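Re: the multi-chain job from yesterday

Posting the exact lines I submitted so nobody has to dig through the queue logs.
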Amino acid sequence: MALDSSSKRVFKVVGTRPPRPDGVDKVTGRALYGADVSAPGMLVGRILRSPHAHARIRAIDTTAAEALPGVKAVVTARDFARLEGDKIIDMGEDRTSLRDVRDNCLARDKALYDGHAVAAVAALTPEIARAALKLIAVDYEILPHVIDVDAAMRPDAPVVLAGRAHENVPGGMSPNVTNHSEFGHGDLEAGFAQADRIVERSFTTAATHQGYIEPHACLASVTGDGRADLWCCTQGQYNVRDICADLMGMQASQLRVTASEIGGGFGGKTVVFIEPVALLLARKSGRPVKIVMSREEVFRATGPTVSASIDVRIGMARDGRITAGEAVLRYSGGAFPCETVDMGAQAAFACYDLRAVRTLGWNVLTNRPKEAAYRAPGAPQAIYAVESVVDELCQGFGLDPLEVRLKNAARKGTKSSYGPTFEAIGLEATLEAAKAHPHYSAPLGPGQGRGLSAGFWFNFGGNTSVSLSVNTDGTVGITEGNPDIGGSRASISLMAAEELGIPYERVRTAIADTSSLGHNDVTDGSRVTFAVGLATIKAARDAKQKMCARAARIWGIDEEAVLWEDGAAKPSGPNAGDFPPMTLAEIAAVSFKTGGPIAGHNEAHADGAGVSFGVHICDVEVDRETGATKVLRYTVIQDAGKAVHPDYVEGQMQGGAVQGIGWALNEEYIYGEDGRLQNAGFLDYRVPVASDLPNIDTVILEIPNPGHPYGVRGVGETPIVPPLAALSNAVSRAIGQRMTRLPMSPPRVLEAINAGR
Amino acid sequence: MRYVRPETAEEAADLLGREEGVSRILAGGTDVLVQLKSGLVEPDLIVDIKRIAGMRDITPEDGGFRIGAAVSGAMLGEHAGVKALWPGVVEGFELIGSTQVQGRATMAGNLCNGSPAGDAVPSLVAAAAVARIQGPGGTRDCPVAEIPVGPGRTALGKGEIITSILLPARPARSGDAYLRFIPRTEMDIAVASAAVSLTLGADGRVAAARVALGAVAPTVRLVDAAAECLLGTGLEEDALAALAAACSAACRPIDDKRGTIAFRSQVAGVLARRAAAIAHQRAGRTS
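And the result, structure tokens for all chains:
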């Protein structure tokens, strides 16, 4: 049987652009999102949140709330089961401790940030629930707070949590410093000695929110015999199940979690916030409980990305060769430990082939909400700083920024700045495509600037289960366990159709609940099209093998003498016998008489996710009297390995670019002196609106990933990495002043222009 | 919470005047409903004025127009007469919110919300518009400029409601314009704004001018010193520079999440200068 295929194969279905399978439901309002599920007798759950950035909780008196008619349950942190020790939960891009998840869901001894949940109620109506929250008396002892990452590192800074530093953090630092990392190779000082020019700059980036349109929502139902159901909006129902079961003291098998349709995630829905609280309320009240977050709650209490402060020092020879690069990265992921800086420290110089490179990373606690993954977590900040300094060096030598990047580009065989040696990668091809693109050579008008940046992301694989059933009418159903946040159902169906040799229209992919399929890691790390696609191809091959065996049985020949080609089983050659091919539909139609139902499945840990590179080109015009930046033209060039459904790939590239543009220009968490978040809404947390943006032009390159049978690489995260520096380089060139702080909001840009007058 | 929908302005004023608890007037509801849903206010009484006769009418009056208090942005934006006479007023009002919000939002509501950043207000002030007010004891007229007295506060007394706003007649060769600065291109709140209304004399020079600034002081501010910079000029470069400087000097803004004192002051001058140029161009087109 020839089931393996070369990555240079000619595709029939993969690479086409069928209409999205969830499109009609979504535009007609039929799709069921997190808040759309209801149950008889359901109660409304509401959460009381800390108005203080940092406060000791001396006591919580819930008696008045409990006495209010219509209130069916009130819970605090004391209602959680005792944890027997802590546990580290691995979520692909993110690792977190179970204890921290619990203490983030309901504050235990201290409220650690403005918006931190401290208690919750379940009541008959929203009005009663709201009234009940006002009756809960929390005795707070207000503590000094710290918001800024650099301030939090000082030895005398208010301590957010003590005793949480990893062993790799040297002694004598503030207890807020919880993690340290170091990457690199070569002789740094020798490298700097060879430089004709060294630029050293410090940068800051603000915490930005994923900005998904759908707020978090869930419905929990707990029966008297200890079983439970949970419907929620999440990127990973298995992860939700495991965490909630642990926190509730339940067996995982007794908790079934069903993921709803999802209105955006971008990494922010890999975290558990309200689900354990809804389960507690449901268990205590004996009735189903629904919790739907308001937008304000989403901003105050769910994960933005890290805020960062970064120093970069790069040496360059006159000919554009980078002789040495060094970066120190200080990230804060809010009030709980995280390791996001590791990824920033690894990604910072990943685009370059360097003989001497070193990055140091520090993670620091502040009184901000716990960070959540946001598209390539940790990389955009680091690469923004590096790409800004590279651009300044290019300007200083009068060198073309594309040529300089080509001269220094990482390629196959390069020992990467973070250790591994690269396999076949697409950076050079991506840079060449940028150079050849008409955008790069288009003339610029007065007051305009062009910025360029490369970007990188690792991509992940991970644990995956797929089941594929061949129906007797010749159609195929696929069950997979990763919520579809970027078009994965279409891509999975396309890959199954390709592998089986049947039309795409005959395949339907559905997302399973946790009781219907084996474990799947969270939808993150751009893993789904790669890893679930890989498992789907293997499940299809499993089914093909079984169908070949059925045909062999019907023909009365040896199984080994049957092969699968063009959607049908065939004798492998003249010696095997002379039988007309049997199509999938023909084999399926008689399956009940030839041995029963036919299905394929695959359960595996997928390795071999190929790294992905992108290059963005951006033109801006800056109003020198107001500091307003208009994005005139924007082009994304990215290596997709193989674009399974090019519409979705382009959508990922455009969406990432747009989120990056928002990050670069206006988005930021703004805190007052009191440590409270001042812009918990879309009015003052400014994501770009459609009229702020030009069409985002896209160029997909396909440099096959050797780790996937079709060459697929994850594409969802890389596109948010280059925009920060692309915008900053464009604005800096347009105004003749180097910008080192994000966002480049109009007041900051105008201040820079005024300073240069 | 009680919801009432009176038939007359007198009845509405009477209800509001007698209410001992918290009351809110509902016209377009684009501010009130948001405040209700977010729990910012919990009124005892809501008085819906949309069904009162005349509230949704635009009526010619003495060469100008009387705009009912419940006239929406969408209605005003389609009124050729008002657009021709006071284009700056219409363009300011139409900047508020989205298309959906425009279907309900009202100028009187924007004025009574008391925000110094309300986009409908600076142009009304520059236009010397006059609000007609119904109170429990009768009606009175009050210049729009005198309605806001601080952020979220107005000069309206207990039980008083604005029933209409009069946009006055104006001489030939007049024009007005409104510009605001927002970090985005729409769906935002002014960080600074400026409205300019001017009339040209027979010699083509500015014979009359009014300049109003938004979002740079506790209330929308009429800046006479800025208007004087334009009088007698043909909007030459030095006149415009003087206008911008006078505007910046008149700013009393705050530092907040939307902008700094320095930024607001500088940009208010820039906007005034640009709005003056547009108003001047419009004035030159009419006769």
